[in-house]
Write a structure and sequence with these properties.
The protein is α+β, with helices and mostly antiparallel strands and about 500 residues long. The protein has three domains: about 200 residues, Thrombin, subunit H, CATH 2.40.10; about 90 residues, Pdz3 Domain, CATH 2.30.42.10; about 100 residues, Pdz3 Domain (Roll), CATH 2.30.42.10. Helices cover about 20% and strands about 35% of the residues. It has eleven helices and 30 strands. Strands 24, 25, 26, 27, 28, 29 and 30 form a seven-stranded antiparallel beta sheet that branches. It has a six-stranded antiparallel β-barrel with strand order 1-4-5-8-7-6. A six-stranded antiparallel β-barrel has the order 10-11-12-15-14-13. A hairpin with a 2-residue loop joins strand 29 and strand 30. The longest helix has about 35 residues. The radius of gyration is 33 Å and the shape is elongated.
Protein backbone atom coordinates (compact mmCIF):
# COMPACT_ATOMS: atom_id res chain seq x y z
CA UNK A 1 0.00 0.00 0.00
CA UNK A 2 1.33 3.37 -0.98
CA UNK A 3 1.90 6.09 1.63
CA UNK A 4 -0.84 8.25 0.09
CA UNK A 5 -3.40 5.44 0.29
CA UNK A 6 -2.39 4.76 3.88
CA UNK A 7 -2.79 8.44 4.78
CA UNK A 8 -6.20 8.66 3.14
CA UNK A 9 -7.32 5.58 5.05
CA UNK A 10 -6.16 7.05 8.39
CA UNK A 11 -7.89 10.35 7.67
CA UNK A 12 -11.10 8.56 6.79
CA UNK A 13 -11.04 6.65 10.06
CA UNK A 14 -10.42 9.89 11.98
CA UNK A 15 -13.30 11.65 10.31
CA UNK A 16 -15.59 8.72 10.99
CA UNK A 17 -14.58 8.68 14.66
CA UNK A 18 -15.22 12.39 14.92
CA UNK A 19 -18.67 12.03 13.39
CA UNK A 20 -19.54 9.18 15.75
CA UNK A 21 -18.39 11.23 18.79
CA UNK A 22 -20.47 14.22 17.75
CA UNK A 23 -23.53 12.03 17.25
CA UNK A 24 -23.01 10.44 20.67
CA UNK A 25 -22.74 13.80 22.45
CA UNK A 26 -25.68 15.13 20.51
CA UNK A 27 -27.69 12.13 21.59
CA UNK A 28 -26.87 12.86 25.22
CA UNK A 29 -28.04 16.47 24.83
CA UNK A 30 -31.24 15.41 23.09
CA UNK A 31 -31.91 12.77 25.75
CA UNK A 32 -31.43 15.36 28.47
CA UNK A 33 -33.82 17.77 26.74
CA UNK A 34 -36.31 14.95 26.17
CA UNK A 35 -36.34 14.27 29.90
CA UNK A 36 -37.26 17.92 30.48
CA UNK A 37 -40.22 17.81 28.05
CA UNK A 38 -43.43 17.17 30.05
CA UNK A 39 -45.57 14.24 29.02
CA UNK A 40 -49.03 14.84 27.59
CA UNK A 41 -51.28 16.34 30.27
CA UNK A 42 -48.35 17.34 32.49
CA UNK A 43 -47.20 20.87 33.34
CA UNK A 44 -43.58 21.80 33.18
CA UNK A 45 -42.03 22.57 36.59
CA UNK A 46 -41.29 26.29 36.99
CA UNK A 47 -37.67 27.24 36.83
CA UNK A 48 -36.09 28.11 40.17
CA UNK A 49 -35.35 31.85 40.48
CA UNK A 50 -31.73 32.87 40.40
CA UNK A 51 -30.31 33.35 43.88
CA UNK A 52 -28.06 36.35 44.45
CA UNK A 53 -24.64 35.20 45.57
CA UNK A 54 -23.00 36.32 48.77
CA UNK A 55 -21.23 39.62 48.07
CA UNK A 56 -17.51 39.18 47.55
CA UNK A 57 -16.87 42.23 49.71
CA UNK A 58 -18.71 45.06 51.41
CA UNK A 59 -15.64 47.30 51.28
CA UNK A 60 -16.64 49.54 48.36
CA UNK A 61 -20.15 50.06 49.73
CA UNK A 62 -18.86 50.76 53.24
CA UNK A 63 -16.31 53.26 51.92
CA UNK A 64 -18.98 55.06 49.93
CA UNK A 65 -21.52 55.25 52.78
CA UNK A 66 -19.29 55.88 55.82
CA UNK A 67 -19.11 59.69 55.36
CA UNK A 68 -22.88 59.98 55.91
CA UNK A 69 -22.71 58.21 59.32
CA UNK A 70 -21.86 60.18 62.46
CA UNK A 71 -20.85 59.48 66.03
CA UNK A 72 -23.05 61.20 68.65
CA UNK A 73 -21.73 62.00 72.13
CA UNK A 74 -24.14 63.24 74.77
CA UNK A 75 -23.69 64.64 78.27
CA UNK A 76 -26.41 64.80 80.89
CA UNK A 77 -26.64 65.50 84.63
CA UNK A 78 -27.81 62.62 86.81
CA UNK A 79 -28.61 62.34 90.51
CA UNK A 80 -27.96 58.99 92.15
CA UNK A 81 -25.09 56.51 92.29
CA UNK A 82 -22.21 56.35 89.85
CA UNK A 83 -19.40 53.80 89.64
CA UNK A 84 -15.79 54.96 89.70
CA UNK A 85 -13.73 52.96 87.23
CA UNK A 86 -9.96 52.49 87.02
CA UNK A 87 -8.12 55.26 85.23
CA UNK A 88 -8.29 54.87 81.48
CA UNK A 89 -11.48 52.83 81.40
CA UNK A 90 -14.20 55.41 82.16
CA UNK A 91 -14.76 56.55 78.59
CA UNK A 92 -13.24 53.63 76.73
CA UNK A 93 -14.95 50.89 74.81
CA UNK A 94 -14.84 48.52 77.80
CA UNK A 95 -16.36 50.95 80.28
CA UNK A 96 -19.69 49.16 80.26
CA UNK A 97 -18.00 45.85 81.06
CA UNK A 98 -16.11 47.32 84.02
CA UNK A 99 -19.25 49.00 85.37
CA UNK A 100 -20.97 45.63 85.52
CA UNK A 101 -17.84 44.00 86.96
CA UNK A 102 -17.32 46.49 89.79
CA UNK A 103 -21.05 46.72 90.53
CA UNK A 104 -21.01 43.00 91.36
CA UNK A 105 -17.90 43.13 93.55
CA UNK A 106 -18.32 42.95 97.34
CA UNK A 107 -17.43 46.04 99.36
CA UNK A 108 -13.99 45.93 100.99
CA UNK A 109 -13.05 47.40 104.32
CA UNK A 110 -9.68 48.32 105.81
CA UNK A 111 -10.26 48.86 109.50
CA UNK A 112 -13.23 51.20 109.81
CA UNK A 113 -12.76 52.75 106.37
CA UNK A 114 -14.96 51.44 103.54
CA UNK A 115 -13.55 51.31 100.02
CA UNK A 116 -15.78 50.67 97.01
CA UNK A 117 -16.34 52.05 93.57
CA UNK A 118 -19.51 54.00 94.26
CA UNK A 119 -20.06 57.76 94.09
CA UNK A 120 -23.23 59.32 95.50
CA UNK A 121 -24.77 62.65 94.53
CA UNK A 122 -24.86 64.71 91.34
CA UNK A 123 -22.61 63.75 88.46
CA UNK A 124 -22.32 64.12 84.71
CA UNK A 125 -23.07 61.07 82.61
CA UNK A 126 -21.69 60.49 79.13
CA UNK A 127 -23.20 58.38 76.39
CA UNK A 128 -22.58 57.42 72.79
CA UNK A 129 -24.79 56.74 69.84
CA UNK A 130 -24.90 56.96 66.08
CA UNK A 131 -26.80 58.92 63.46
CA UNK A 132 -27.13 59.38 59.72
CA UNK A 133 -27.02 62.67 57.78
CA UNK A 134 -30.27 63.16 55.86
CA UNK A 135 -29.75 66.66 54.45
CA UNK A 136 -26.75 68.58 53.14
CA UNK A 137 -27.76 71.43 55.47
CA UNK A 138 -26.86 69.28 58.49
CA UNK A 139 -30.00 67.43 59.60
CA UNK A 140 -29.22 64.12 61.29
CA UNK A 141 -31.65 61.29 62.06
CA UNK A 142 -31.07 59.25 65.21
CA UNK A 143 -32.90 57.59 68.11
CA UNK A 144 -34.79 59.62 70.68
CA UNK A 145 -33.31 57.55 73.50
CA UNK A 146 -29.78 58.52 72.38
CA UNK A 147 -30.39 62.23 73.05
CA UNK A 148 -33.10 62.02 75.72
CA UNK A 149 -32.40 64.44 78.62
CA UNK A 150 -29.11 65.46 76.98
CA UNK A 151 -27.66 68.81 78.05
CA UNK A 152 -24.90 68.75 75.45
CA UNK A 153 -24.80 66.91 72.12
CA UNK A 154 -21.70 66.73 69.93
CA UNK A 155 -21.45 65.07 66.52
CA UNK A 156 -18.26 63.70 64.98
CA UNK A 157 -18.07 63.03 61.24
CA UNK A 158 -16.13 60.21 59.61
CA UNK A 159 -13.30 62.60 58.71
CA UNK A 160 -12.92 63.69 62.34
CA UNK A 161 -14.70 67.05 62.15
CA UNK A 162 -16.71 67.71 65.29
CA UNK A 163 -19.72 69.99 65.73
CA UNK A 164 -22.11 70.96 68.48
CA UNK A 165 -25.63 69.77 67.67
CA UNK A 166 -29.09 70.75 68.84
CA UNK A 167 -32.21 68.62 68.97
CA UNK A 168 -34.80 70.16 66.62
CA UNK A 169 -37.47 67.46 66.87
CA UNK A 170 -38.27 64.24 68.64
CA UNK A 171 -40.91 61.51 68.76
CA UNK A 172 -40.62 59.22 71.80
CA UNK A 173 -43.38 56.89 70.57
CA UNK A 174 -41.30 55.78 67.59
CA UNK A 175 -37.94 56.50 69.29
CA UNK A 176 -36.83 58.96 66.61
CA UNK A 177 -35.15 62.37 66.82
CA UNK A 178 -33.69 64.90 64.39
CA UNK A 179 -30.52 66.88 65.17
CA UNK A 180 -29.13 69.97 63.45
CA UNK A 181 -25.48 70.89 63.02
CA UNK A 182 -24.19 74.05 61.34
CA UNK A 183 -21.12 72.95 59.38
CA UNK A 184 -20.93 75.97 57.11
CA UNK A 185 -20.71 73.74 54.04
CA UNK A 186 -22.77 70.91 52.48
CA UNK A 187 -22.43 67.56 54.22
CA UNK A 188 -22.49 64.08 52.63
CA UNK A 189 -26.06 62.78 52.61
CA UNK A 190 -27.45 59.25 52.77
CA UNK A 191 -30.33 58.26 50.47
CA UNK A 192 -33.52 57.20 52.23
CA UNK A 193 -34.83 54.06 50.55
CA UNK A 194 -37.92 51.93 51.13
CA UNK A 195 -38.28 49.37 53.89
CA UNK A 196 -41.54 48.06 52.45
CA UNK A 197 -39.66 46.45 49.56
CA UNK A 198 -37.29 44.58 51.89
CA UNK A 199 -37.63 40.82 51.90
CA UNK A 200 -36.67 38.37 54.60
CA UNK A 201 -33.27 37.08 53.55
CA UNK A 202 -32.06 40.29 51.85
CA UNK A 203 -28.53 41.40 52.63
CA UNK A 204 -28.16 44.50 54.82
CA UNK A 205 -25.25 46.41 56.33
CA UNK A 206 -25.08 48.46 59.54
CA UNK A 207 -22.59 51.25 60.23
CA UNK A 208 -22.31 52.75 63.70
CA UNK A 209 -20.21 53.32 66.78
CA UNK A 210 -20.65 50.30 69.09
CA UNK A 211 -18.98 50.76 72.48
CA UNK A 212 -17.49 54.01 71.22
CA UNK A 213 -15.56 52.25 68.44
CA UNK A 214 -16.16 54.72 65.61
CA UNK A 215 -17.47 53.69 62.19
CA UNK A 216 -17.78 49.97 62.71
CA UNK A 217 -19.27 48.02 59.80
CA UNK A 218 -21.33 44.85 60.29
CA UNK A 219 -23.36 42.88 57.75
CA UNK A 220 -26.07 40.26 57.77
CA UNK A 221 -29.52 39.59 56.43
CA UNK A 222 -33.07 40.64 57.20
CA UNK A 223 -34.21 37.96 59.64
CA UNK A 224 -37.82 39.11 59.98
CA UNK A 225 -40.23 42.00 59.49
CA UNK A 226 -43.09 43.43 61.50
CA UNK A 227 -41.57 42.38 64.83
CA UNK A 228 -43.39 43.43 68.02
CA UNK A 229 -40.94 43.85 70.91
CA UNK A 230 -43.00 45.92 73.35
CA UNK A 231 -41.11 49.15 72.73
CA UNK A 232 -44.19 51.28 72.09
CA UNK A 233 -47.61 51.55 70.47
CA UNK A 234 -46.21 51.52 66.93
CA UNK A 235 -43.93 48.49 67.09
CA UNK A 236 -43.09 47.30 63.57
CA UNK A 237 -39.40 46.46 63.62
CA UNK A 238 -37.02 44.95 61.10
CA UNK A 239 -35.10 42.08 62.67
CA UNK A 240 -31.56 41.55 61.46
CA UNK A 241 -28.57 39.41 62.36
CA UNK A 242 -26.15 42.19 61.44
CA UNK A 243 -24.43 42.85 64.78
CA UNK A 244 -26.02 45.74 66.70
CA UNK A 245 -24.48 46.70 70.04
CA UNK A 246 -24.66 49.62 72.50
CA UNK A 247 -23.56 52.68 70.55
CA UNK A 248 -25.11 51.45 67.29
CA UNK A 249 -28.42 53.02 68.32
CA UNK A 250 -29.52 55.67 65.84
CA UNK A 251 -27.22 54.44 63.10
CA UNK A 252 -28.41 53.43 59.63
CA UNK A 253 -29.21 50.01 58.24
CA UNK A 254 -28.38 49.97 54.50
CA UNK A 255 -29.47 47.70 51.68
CA UNK A 256 -27.04 46.60 48.99
CA UNK A 257 -27.91 49.61 46.82
CA UNK A 258 -26.68 51.89 49.59
CA UNK A 259 -30.13 53.15 50.60
CA UNK A 260 -31.10 53.59 54.24
CA UNK A 261 -33.83 51.06 55.00
CA UNK A 262 -33.85 51.28 58.79
CA UNK A 263 -32.58 53.03 61.92
CA UNK A 264 -30.90 50.62 64.32
CA UNK A 265 -32.48 50.90 67.72
CA UNK A 266 -32.49 47.77 69.90
CA UNK A 267 -30.94 44.39 70.54
CA UNK A 268 -31.69 41.31 72.60
CA UNK A 269 -29.20 41.60 75.50
CA UNK A 270 -28.60 37.87 75.92
CA UNK A 271 -29.16 36.89 72.29
CA UNK A 272 -26.74 36.57 69.43
CA UNK A 273 -27.59 37.89 66.00
CA UNK A 274 -30.91 39.43 67.06
CA UNK A 275 -31.09 43.18 66.47
CA UNK A 276 -33.94 45.49 65.54
CA UNK A 277 -34.28 48.56 63.34
CA UNK A 278 -37.08 51.07 62.84
CA UNK A 279 -38.30 50.81 59.21
CA UNK A 280 -37.32 53.93 57.28
CA UNK A 281 -40.86 54.10 55.85
CA UNK A 282 -42.04 54.72 59.42
CA UNK A 283 -39.57 57.59 59.82
CA UNK A 284 -39.93 59.38 56.46
CA UNK A 285 -43.39 60.95 57.00
CA UNK A 286 -42.44 62.01 60.54
CA UNK A 287 -39.21 63.83 59.71
CA UNK A 288 -40.85 66.96 58.20
CA UNK A 289 -43.16 67.26 61.23
CA UNK A 290 -40.30 66.93 63.70
CA UNK A 291 -38.26 69.56 61.86
CA UNK A 292 -41.17 71.98 61.45
CA UNK A 293 -42.89 71.67 64.85
CA UNK A 294 -40.46 69.82 67.11
CA UNK A 295 -42.84 66.87 67.47
CA UNK A 296 -45.43 64.71 65.73
CA UNK A 297 -49.21 65.14 65.46
CA UNK A 298 -51.03 61.85 64.97
CA UNK A 299 -54.46 60.85 63.81
CA UNK A 300 -56.90 59.51 66.40
CA UNK A 301 -59.98 57.29 66.18
CA UNK A 302 -60.81 56.84 69.85
CA UNK A 303 -61.02 53.07 70.11
CA UNK A 304 -59.21 50.37 72.03
CA UNK A 305 -58.53 47.32 69.88
CA UNK A 306 -57.11 43.84 70.28
CA UNK A 307 -56.19 40.85 68.18
CA UNK A 308 -58.74 38.11 67.70
CA UNK A 309 -57.70 34.75 69.14
CA UNK A 310 -59.41 31.49 68.15
CA UNK A 311 -61.20 31.48 71.54
CA UNK A 312 -62.47 35.02 70.99
CA UNK A 313 -63.56 34.16 67.46
CA UNK A 314 -65.55 31.21 68.79
CA UNK A 315 -67.10 33.22 71.64
CA UNK A 316 -68.08 36.06 69.29
CA UNK A 317 -69.20 33.63 66.55
CA UNK A 318 -66.76 35.03 64.00
CA UNK A 319 -65.67 33.20 60.87
CA UNK A 320 -61.96 33.73 61.49
CA UNK A 321 -59.33 35.71 63.36
CA UNK A 322 -58.80 38.45 60.76
CA UNK A 323 -59.37 42.07 61.73
CA UNK A 324 -59.10 44.22 64.84
CA UNK A 325 -61.65 43.73 67.60
CA UNK A 326 -63.00 46.96 69.10
CA UNK A 327 -62.96 46.51 72.88
CA UNK A 328 -63.82 50.11 73.78
CA UNK A 329 -65.12 53.24 72.06
CA UNK A 330 -64.12 56.47 73.78
CA UNK A 331 -66.96 58.92 74.55
CA UNK A 332 -67.23 61.91 72.21
CA UNK A 333 -64.50 60.53 69.97
CA UNK A 334 -64.33 60.36 66.15
CA UNK A 335 -65.19 56.65 66.40
CA UNK A 336 -68.26 57.20 68.58
CA UNK A 337 -69.51 59.98 66.29
CA UNK A 338 -69.07 57.69 63.29
CA UNK A 339 -71.12 54.97 64.95
CA UNK A 340 -68.46 52.38 65.87
CA UNK A 341 -69.49 50.08 68.71
CA UNK A 342 -67.81 47.80 71.20
CA UNK A 343 -67.63 44.32 69.67
CA UNK A 344 -67.22 45.57 66.09
CA UNK A 345 -64.44 43.98 64.09
CA UNK A 346 -62.57 46.47 61.89
CA UNK A 347 -61.69 44.63 58.68
CA UNK A 348 -60.52 47.55 56.52
CA UNK A 349 -59.36 51.14 56.93
CA UNK A 350 -59.31 53.53 53.97
CA UNK A 351 -60.03 50.59 51.69
CA UNK A 352 -56.98 48.57 52.80
CA UNK A 353 -57.55 45.27 54.64
CA UNK A 354 -56.78 45.09 58.36
CA UNK A 355 -55.38 41.63 59.00
CA UNK A 356 -54.86 42.10 62.74
CA UNK A 357 -54.83 44.75 65.45
CA UNK A 358 -51.16 45.45 64.65
CA UNK A 359 -52.09 46.86 61.25
CA UNK A 360 -54.42 49.64 62.41
CA UNK A 361 -52.64 52.02 64.85
CA UNK A 362 -49.89 53.06 62.45
CA UNK A 363 -52.31 53.70 59.61
CA UNK A 364 -54.60 55.83 61.74
CA UNK A 365 -51.69 57.72 63.28
CA UNK A 366 -50.31 58.56 59.83
CA UNK A 367 -53.67 59.91 58.59
CA UNK A 368 -53.89 63.74 58.55
CA UNK A 369 -56.11 65.23 61.22
CA UNK A 370 -59.52 66.23 59.84
CA UNK A 371 -59.46 63.83 56.90
CA UNK A 372 -62.54 61.65 56.28
CA UNK A 373 -61.80 57.93 55.99
CA UNK A 374 -63.92 54.83 55.40
CA UNK A 375 -63.88 52.16 58.09
CA UNK A 376 -65.29 48.73 57.24
CA UNK A 377 -66.57 46.70 60.20
CA UNK A 378 -68.22 43.35 60.81
CA UNK A 379 -71.13 43.62 63.24
CA UNK A 380 -73.22 40.59 64.15
CA UNK A 381 -72.50 38.92 60.82
CA UNK A 382 -73.16 41.99 58.67
CA UNK A 383 -70.58 44.18 56.90
CA UNK A 384 -70.93 47.94 57.38
CA UNK A 385 -69.02 50.91 55.96
CA UNK A 386 -68.74 53.90 58.27
CA UNK A 387 -67.22 57.30 57.54
CA UNK A 388 -65.02 58.72 60.29
CA UNK A 389 -63.36 62.13 60.49
CA UNK A 390 -59.91 61.48 61.97
CA UNK A 391 -59.21 63.55 65.08
CA UNK A 392 -56.04 64.64 66.84
CA UNK A 393 -54.55 62.14 69.25
CA UNK A 394 -54.96 62.94 72.92
CA UNK A 395 -54.60 61.14 76.25
CA UNK A 396 -57.41 59.96 78.49
CA UNK A 397 -57.23 58.68 82.01
CA UNK A 398 -59.55 56.66 84.22
CA UNK A 399 -59.65 56.19 87.97
CA UNK A 400 -61.74 54.10 90.32
CA UNK A 401 -62.50 53.92 94.01
CA UNK A 402 -64.05 51.03 95.84
CA UNK A 403 -66.25 49.56 98.51
CA UNK A 404 -66.36 46.20 100.31
CA UNK A 405 -64.82 43.22 98.52
CA UNK A 406 -66.76 40.16 97.39
CA UNK A 407 -65.70 36.93 95.73
CA UNK A 408 -67.15 35.57 92.50
CA UNK A 409 -67.28 31.86 93.25
CA UNK A 410 -65.15 29.36 91.32
CA UNK A 411 -63.82 31.87 88.75
CA UNK A 412 -61.17 33.09 91.20
CA UNK A 413 -62.20 36.77 91.07
CA UNK A 414 -62.50 39.07 94.07
CA UNK A 415 -64.60 42.10 93.20
CA UNK A 416 -65.51 45.51 94.58
CA UNK A 417 -68.18 47.97 93.49
CA UNK A 418 -66.89 51.31 92.19
CA UNK A 419 -68.07 54.82 92.97
CA UNK A 420 -68.26 57.49 90.30
CA UNK A 421 -67.05 60.09 92.82
CA UNK A 422 -65.69 59.12 96.22
CA UNK A 423 -66.65 62.57 97.52
CA UNK A 424 -70.30 62.11 96.54
CA UNK A 425 -71.30 60.12 99.60
CA UNK A 426 -73.48 57.02 99.68
CA UNK A 427 -75.94 58.46 97.16
CA UNK A 428 -73.34 58.79 94.40
CA UNK A 429 -74.31 56.84 91.27
CA UNK A 430 -72.26 53.73 90.52
CA UNK A 431 -69.45 53.99 87.97
CA UNK A 432 -69.25 51.75 84.94
CA UNK A 433 -67.84 48.32 85.67
CA UNK A 434 -66.75 46.34 88.69
CA UNK A 435 -63.24 46.50 90.16
CA UNK A 436 -61.13 43.33 90.42
CA UNK A 437 -59.27 43.61 93.72
CA UNK A 438 -57.34 40.35 93.42
CA UNK A 439 -57.23 37.09 91.48
CA UNK A 440 -56.83 33.63 92.96
CA UNK A 441 -53.70 31.90 91.60
CA UNK A 442 -54.45 28.89 89.40
CA UNK A 443 -58.06 29.96 88.82
CA UNK A 444 -59.80 30.40 85.42
CA UNK A 445 -59.50 34.18 85.91
CA UNK A 446 -55.75 33.92 86.44
CA UNK A 447 -55.39 31.67 83.38
CA UNK A 448 -57.21 34.25 81.25
CA UNK A 449 -54.78 37.01 82.27
CA UNK A 450 -57.07 39.09 84.50
CA UNK A 451 -55.18 41.02 87.21
CA UNK A 452 -55.97 42.89 90.37
CA UNK A 453 -56.85 46.47 89.46
CA UNK A 454 -58.66 45.51 86.26
CA UNK A 455 -62.26 46.63 85.79
CA UNK A 456 -64.91 44.28 84.40
CA UNK A 457 -67.13 46.19 81.98
CA UNK A 458 -69.11 43.32 80.45
CA UNK A 459 -69.91 39.70 81.25
CA UNK A 460 -71.26 37.57 78.38
CA UNK A 461 -71.64 40.82 76.38
CA UNK A 462 -73.90 42.31 79.08
CA UNK A 463 -72.80 45.61 80.74
CA UNK A 464 -72.16 45.33 84.48
CA UNK A 465 -72.06 48.16 87.02
CA UNK A 466 -72.13 46.21 90.28
CA UNK A 467 -71.24 42.88 91.81
CA UNK A 468 -74.94 41.97 91.63
CA UNK A 469 -74.85 42.54 87.85
CA UNK A 470 -71.86 40.21 87.56
CA UNK A 471 -73.58 37.51 89.59
CA UNK A 472 -76.76 37.79 87.51
CA UNK A 473 -74.83 37.65 84.22
CA UNK A 474 -72.93 34.58 85.44
CA UNK A 475 -76.18 32.88 86.42
CA UNK A 476 -77.68 33.52 82.98
CA UNK A 477 -74.58 32.52 81.02
CA UNK A 478 -74.40 29.17 79.25
CA UNK A 479 -72.24 26.98 81.46
CA UNK A 480 -71.21 24.82 78.49
CA UNK A 481 -69.70 27.76 76.58
CA UNK A 482 -66.57 29.82 77.34
CA UNK A 483 -67.36 33.00 79.28
CA UNK A 484 -66.56 36.24 77.46
CA UNK A 485 -65.61 39.29 79.55
CA UNK A 486 -64.68 42.85 78.58
CA UNK A 487 -61.89 44.14 80.80
CA UNK A 488 -60.57 47.69 81.24
CA UNK A 489 -56.92 48.07 82.23
CA UNK A 490 -55.42 51.54 82.50
CA UNK A 491 -56.51 53.55 79.49
CA UNK A 492 -57.49 50.60 77.28
CA UNK A 493 -59.96 47.74 77.19
CA UNK A 494 -59.80 44.18 75.86
CA UNK A 495 -61.76 40.93 75.79
CA UNK A 496 -60.82 37.75 77.65
CA UNK A 497 -62.30 34.27 77.56
CA UNK A 498 -62.65 32.30 80.80
CA UNK A 499 -62.78 28.52 80.63
CA UNK A 500 -64.02 26.66 83.70
Amino acid sequence: MSYGAFLNKRLGIGVLATVLAVCFLGGLVIAKEMRNIPAAGETAAPAMPAVQAVPDSFADLASKLAPSVVNIKVTKSVTGVSWHLPEGFEGGPFGDFYRRFFRGMPHRRHGQQRHDHQRHGHFRQHGNGSGVIISAAGQILTNHHVVQHAEEVRVTLADGREYEARVVGRDPKTDLAVLQVDAGEPLPVATLGSSDTLRVGDWVMAIGNPFGLSHTVTAGIVSGKGRIIGAGPYDDFIQTDASINPGNSGGPLFNMRGDVVGINTAMVPHGRGIGFAIPIDTAKPLIPQMVATGGVTRGYLGVSIQSITPDLAAALKLDGTQGALVSEVMPDSPASRAGLQTGDVITAFAGKPVASSQDLPGRVAATPVGQEMTVTVQRQGASLELTVTVGKMHTETAQATGSPESDSGNLGLYLRDRQADSRGGDDAPPADGVLVTRVQPGSPAAASGIRGGDVILQVAQQPVDSIADVQQALAEADEASPLLMLIKRGEGSFYVVLKA
